[in-house]
Design brief:
alpha/beta, binds adenosine-5'-triphosphate, hydrolase
Length: 826
């Protein structure tokens, strides 16, 4: 199957016909001579004809054109003949947004096999109709309960209802607040393990009790922020920490008045919480700056683990001896990112600081005024959407006699409960919110790119009515995110090429101090562009998010995507991202989550976390997964995993035929969508051919995607095996015209030289700004380390002349350079 070699070869009008009209009559030797002369002339003329693209040619283009298969040509003639509307590629369906795309400067005849040689796709037996009734929301606020009934301070309640539009508690809040608010049963208060579905309101479940606990301190005469840090919340990523800090700040804006104090009294507006300052430590600012803020005092601190440990070890003015609360949010991600040892270090550091502070008091060395209840121990709360084995391990090392608090079904009173003790060894299923509509499309590799555009157009059209809706698209690696962001933001569909932008909207002020000092930013400025638009998605803003962007660019992208306070009036937005956005992020109005690449790590759990970015707090949402024909078994597999062994609930993904998707995205009658899709594919391919940078982005993305794909664990290799992928077809998904071999050569030099050396895709690509120690701490997970060990072992083996371990024989399907090379050449 090498049909990909002949795709999209444009035949320009002025290219002489290859048909040789032979001389009639005369001797056969004379006839042959004439025929040869003519043939030579045709070849010379062909060489003189300039390339259809006026852009610098890539090495791949320098090669002679390949011969088109008759079948392909025939097919394209049947399906891709330009029609009256075809220049407006793609014409919109009647209900589509106005996508007036200028006529592309395209050849008069298109030869494309985008719709031929694709494997036959059978839709698995799954509910196909649209009339599957949506279930009642499982993470919505409850009508049957009130915050007052749970013991929340009336001032907090009025702030929640008046300023934050939060009226009723969710199931996890109903379960957690009584436990965390209750007067402590003993000096040794119980630690808590908080578990519930995505988007169920875990953040408020611990923030409200912390604030309510600290509020009474406001009446102490000596209280001010120099009291030091009394509560610490740890989150695995900077984005999450920032998000929690934003919610905390919204809560602390609360202005408290004594009940008998009139609103007119002189100091009625004075906040009693003035001393209750929150701080954020995420490594974006210089250490000196952070130290200065710590010295002043930050009573409630939100931090990433690495930075917190750093200050505990190196900042003597960090006054944390009186810390009463420690929250470990997104515990499963903390474990996945390899923070177990860091957390242990933090706990030791906190204990040590407490001992020192007590000692200083006892020995009269402390300058502090007032008394402090040193008997009261620090309470630890661990939050997680899952109770996987590694999370239980973390609970075992950080919690003392914990209570398990969970909420699974919002509508059942008895399901919100606080168990007597922590469940151990349980393998409970982890399900998305019940109101989430889960879909999948089996997409032949060649059609992936155009199908993605079709799906985005469809979703955007549907959201036009509900302005401001957002769509998140998950991809396998940073290179792929960069490629798709630049491709959609750069393809013109025939418009004159836009001037290259000097820089994006990521202004200098967004850059962190460290980045300004040039310490961690290695990316060229243009790659840090934050926002893009695409003629195929009118009025839609496109963003990207991955760990290799500078902190400034990451936060700017999130801010742009989330929109301002009036999100409802804003343009729809699409965010291309890696798994860095899969946990905890609470972005308003996310209407759909598209898993263009299925998770390489974390399996079904990661799938549920990703789709959990929509359908939050009782709202609706859609999940879409792209499944390759060789991966169809994934659907049953993931349904089974979500269902769990004991659950009676049925979890179904609805299968949508790819033709339906393309038709609803591109419109037209009959198979017109095929021609429109072909034209879009051609426009993308032209963008790749436009210059070397674009071509390199595409090739890098292709190779990095391959590497990412090869890291699916061996337990999933019956579904995801690199051997099952047709490289030529996959190249199409990266708008590459070259066959894999050409990709390799065009990358400059030998394949061996150009393929990333046997490093894990994560190490070489996924989230790492080179030289960033903070990244090392924030993103180096156990799985990654194990994978790197396998890669290193393979490297040693081959260097010693050993035989490469067979693919998938280890935990990870790491292919060595030679192995990958062989596949590429296949
Ligand atoms: N009682 C409530 N009523 C209405 N909305 C709420 C309520 N509690 C929380 N929310 C909103 O629900 C959304 C999700 O909350 P939160 O981020 O705390 O969920 P989560 O359980 O931590 O999710 P994840 O596991 O994905 O991190 C937020 O936008 C929050 O403002």
């Amino acid at each position: 199957m090498d049909d990909d070699l002949v795709l999209n070869i444009a035949t320009d009008d002025h290219v002489p016909s290859k048909h040789i009209s032979g001389k009639k009559g005369g001797r056969w030797t004379e006839r042959l001579k004439v025929k040869r002369t003519l043939k030579r002339k045709v070849r010379t003329d062909e060489k003189k004809v300039p390339s259809s693209s006026s852009t610098p040619s890539t090495p791949a283009e320098d090669r002679p054109r390949k011969k088109a298969r008759v079948e392909s040509v025939q097919r394209s003639k049947d399906t891709a003949q330009p029609t009256e509307r075809s220049p407006q590629a793609p014409s919109k369906p009647s209900n589509q947004p106005k996508a007036s795309v200028p006529q592309p400067a395209r050849p008069t005849q298109i030869i494309s096999s985008l719709f031929s040689y694709n494997p036959k796709v059978d839709l698995p037996a799954s509910p196909q109709t649209n009339d599957v009734k949506p279930s009642a929301p499982s993470n919505a606020p409850l009508d049957s309960s009130t915050f007052a009934g749970l013991g929340l301070n009336p001032l907090l309640i009025s702030h929640l209802t008046g300023k934050m539009s939060i009226q009723k508690p969710t199931a996890i809040q109903r379960a957690a607040l009584p436990v965390l608010l209750s007067p402590l049963p003993s000096k040794a208060s119980r630690d808590v393990f908080l578990q519930s579905q995505t988007g169920s309101g875990k953040t408020l479940s611990y923030l409200l009790p912390i604030i309510q606990d600290l509020l009474p301190l406001s009446s102490l005469s000596y209280i001010d922020r120099s009291i030091g840090t009394l509560a610490i919340i740890i989150a695995p990523t900077r984005e999450l920490a920032k998000q929690i800090s934003d919610v905390l700040e919204a809560l602390l804006k609360m202005r408290l008045r004594a009940e008998d104090e009139s609103a007119d009294s002189a100091d009625a507006s004075a906040p009693m919480t003035r001393w209750l300052v929150s701080g954020l430590l995420i490594g974006g600012a210089t250490r000196t700056h952070e130290k200065a803020r710590l010295r002043k005092g930050l009573p409630i601190l939100v931090s990433t683990p690495g930075r917190l440990l750093d200050h505990l070890q190196n900042t003597s003015s960090f006054n944390v001896g009186k810390c009463r609360w420690l929250v470990l949010d997104e515990a499963d991600q903390l474990m996945e990112l390899g923070f177990e040892e860091t957390i242990k270090g933090i706990i030791q550091g906190l204990d040590g600081r407490r001992r020192l502070a007590q000692q200083a008091m006892a020995e009269g060395r402390s300058t502090e005024v007032g008394t402090w209840d040193w008997e009261r121990r620090r309470r630890t709360v661990l939050c997680s959407a899952t109770i996987r084995e590694d999370v239980q391990k973390l609970a075992g090392t950080t919690l003392i006699e914990p209570l398990m608090v969970k909420a699974t079904e919002a509508d059942k009173e008895e399901s919100s409960n606080a168990d007597k003790s922590l469940v151990t060894g349980a393998t409970e299923s982890f399900t998305p919110p019940s109101q989430l509509a889960q879909n999948f499309v089996t997409v032949p590799l060649k059609l992936r790119l155009v199908s993605l555009v079709a799906l985005l157009r469809k979703l955007v059209t549907e959201t036009q009515v509900r302005k401001g809706a957002k769509i998140i698209v998950f991809l396998s690696c940073t290179d792929s995110v960069d490629f798709h962001f630049n491709l959609l933001g750069g393809s013109t569909m025939g418009d004159p090429e836009p001037e290259p932008e000097a820089s994006g909207s990521d202004s200098d002020e967004n850059d962190s101090d460290e980045e300004k000092e040039g310490k961690s930013s290695e990316k060229p400025k243009q790659l840090e562009k934050v926002e893009a638009t695409c003629p195929l998605l009118p009025d839609v803003k496109i963003y990207r998010l991955h760990g290799s962007l500078t902190t400034g660019a990451r936060l700017a992208a999130l801010k742009g995507f989330a929109g301002g306070k009036k999100q409802v009036q804003e343009a729809p937005a699409v965010l291309f991202c890696t798994s860095v956005a899969s946990r905890g992020l609470d972005l308003p109005l996310v209407r759909a989550v598209v898993q263009y690449d299925l998770p390489t790590e974390g399996g079904a759990t990661e799938y549920v976390h990703r789709v959990g970015r929509t359908a939050r707090a009782g709202k609706g949402g859609e999940a879409w997964s792209f499944v390759a024909p060789s991966e169809v078994a994934w659907v049953k597999w993931v349904e089974g995993k979500m269902q769990g062994e004991e659950s009676n609930a049925t979890v179904h993904l609805r299968g949508v035929p790819v033709e339906d998707l393309l038709r609803s995205g591109f419109g037209g009658r009959g198979s017109e969508f095929e021609q429109r899709a072909t034209e879009i594919q051609l426009a993308f391919e032209r963008w790749v051919l436009r210059n070397k940078d674009n071509a390199n982005l595409a090739r890098k993305a292709f190779l990095s995607h391959m590497r990412a794909y090869s890291t699916h664990p061996s337990s999933e290799k019956h579904i995801f095996h690199i051997r099952n992928l047709h490289m030529g077809h996959l190249a199409k998904a990266f708008a590459l015209r070259d066959a894999p071999k050409a990709v390799k050569v065009a990358h400059g030099g030998s394949a061996k030289k150009n393929l990333p050396k046997t490093k894990s895709h994560r190490e070489s690509n996924k989230e790492k700004p080179a030289g960033s120690k903070e990244w090392e701490r924030d993103h180096s997970g156990d799985a990654e380390r194990r994978m790197q060990a396998v890669v290193r072992a393979q490297g040693r083996l081959t260097k010693q002349g050993g035989v490469m371990a067979s693919m998938g024989a280890s935990e990870f399907q790491i292919s060595g350079t030679a192995e990958l090379e062989k596949m590429l050449a296949r």
